[in-house]
Amino acid sequence: MKKISILPSFERSVKKLTSQEKERLAKSLEIFNNFLITSQTPYGFRFKKINHDKYEFRIDIRLRVVMKEEGDTFYLVLVGDHDEVKRYLRNFR
Fold it and tell me: Which superkingdom heads the taxonomic lineage of this protein's source (predicted)?
C-alpha cells in the first residue's frame, strides 16, 4: 500500500494559505488518502501525472498539490497555484 510523507517545502507552502484554503486542503488530502486505499477517484478530483515521477491533484479552481512518487511513497512537495507548480517543475525536473 502507498504511503504519504510530507516534505518541509510542503509545510512552508501550507503556511501561506488562508484558513479556508487549509480546510479545502485537508478535505482534498482525505480524498487522496481514500484514493490510495480504494483506487477510486471521485468525479472532479483531477489526479494526474505531470511528468515521470510527479503528480498533482486539484484542491479548487486555483490550488494544486504536487507530489513526487518514490517507491511506495508519495512525498507531498508543494501546494500552490498554476504558476507556482510550473516554477517548481522548471526548477526540479
Answer: Bacteria
Q: What is the chain's Cα-based Rg?
A: 12
**Cell numbers placing 92:** 526540479
CATH of domain 3-91: 3.30.2310.20
Give the closest residue to 48 by CA, choosing from 72, 22, 69, 17: 69
In the chain (93 residues long), the average pLDDT of successive 10-residue segments reads: 94 96 96 90 85 92 95 96 91 76
Query: Of 62, 53, 6, 12, nearest to 29 (Cα)?
Result: 6
Contact 4, 36 (CB under 8 A): yes
pTM: predicted TM-score of the whole model, two decimal places: 0.89
User: What residues are paired with 16 via a beta bridge?
Assistant: none
Looking up cell 479545502, which residue turns up? 24
Written as nine digits, the cell of 8 is 518541509
Cell of 43: 468525479
